[in-house]
Prior knowledge:
4-stranded mixed β-sheet, binds ligand EPZ, UDP-n-acetylglucosamine1-carboxyvinyl-transferase, Chain, 24 strands
Amino acid sequence: MDRIRIRGGNRLTGTIPISGAKNAALPLMIVSLLTPGTLTLSNVPRLADVRQLQRILQNHGVDIMVAGKRPGQNGMQGDVKQLSAKVIADTTAPYELVSKMRASFWVLGPLLARCGEAKVSLPGGCAIGTRPVDMHLLAMEKLGAEIAIENGYVIANAKKGLKGAHIAFDKVSVGATHAALMASVLADGDTIIENAASEPEIGDVAECLVKMGARIEGIHTSTLKVRGVTSLTGAEHSVIPDRIETGTYAMCVAMAGGDVLLKDANSGHLSAVIDIMRGAGIGVESTNEGIRIHRNGHALEPVKIDTEPYPGFPTDCQAQLMALMTKADGTSMIRETIFENRFMHVQELARLGADIHLHGDTAEVRGVKKLTGAPVMATDLRASVSLVIAGLVAEGETTINRVYHLDRGFETLEEKLSACGADVTRISGS
Ligand code: EPZ
């Protein structure tokens, strides 16, 4: 298994290109199941999760073509992928594929909408929590599907087609909102989705569906109104920039010190993160090229945050903020309200000298003067990058094992950081 080795102490200067959003690219690829036409997606990030989803969609019969390099293109632009689900050959998403990438469970809605049936493996839990899908199933039943659970699979049927419905979620769920939206666009009649998640990635998917002929109102709000249509066409759509990657690299610069342009970042998608960073004394400026992050020597102020659904502080940036705050001048309080076990990075940060005390859903992070390098273990996607952030300032060498977690969500991380002066190297493992 590959490892990443970081020698701390270098400031970061230059430009980091922000890739297309993983959490938009995945549902956008799934949306290809809703039409026999060709969906052309650009700015698709080159990530392990994208490659895994590709395997799952191809198993359903989706033809996927990746455009080759064009003259003048540099290696940092995202892929252009053409996805065509002319005929869906198989409505089963098998355990051995779904268990490797949870979001593939989201094929349930489109398969039901397009084919009237689906057999999708339950995704199971993961490092950060049990990750139930009850709200997904509730939404499908509201739309008229019959749902049974057998041998770890969801068996769903809607032979007479799906019918528009009023779906009111009792809590905000990104995945359940995607599921309800993707199923309702081909349902007979009107659907209202109340208490919908309003993350930018949901809006990106909704805007793509409208290009395909869907009729959706309330995009980017917590109430979506959908008027079902009988079919959708292909379309062309570019994936929005990744706000979590943006927040992550912003915290890398804040930790290491320096001055970096996060190219193509959209500051409108992470105002809560920007507010918290400015409160910590970090320079953050929106420019017409992206977001400039700078900190030159002055102290990091401690923060107090709760993670919340959008537009609140994103849970996917919680581990990164915690790593940053291990070096603050004072004590920070970070409360995780979305997932029940998203503090796996605490013990690993402690190995580097961080002083963190857990009180239930809240981490008390007491700033220390120094972190020292050590071997550490990546446990999940965002926890692994928090170790990179700490390693950028830890004295000596930090080696992060199991970086396959990192590769799921961060495209060429070591190249992007090394190009700005970090001493980061990937060591290929057996
Ligand atoms: C999406 O996961 C993201 N994944 C996660 O990013 C992100 O952390 C999460 O949304 C929250 O923003 C993708 O977009 C691929 P949820 P999802 O449904 O949809 C509970 C990353 O690092 N819940 O919004 O699975 C759930 O347990 C990943 O890129 C139910 O109870 O998250 C959680 O407590 C990690 N029943 C809360 O809702 C359900 O049916 C929010 O989960 C569904 C969810």
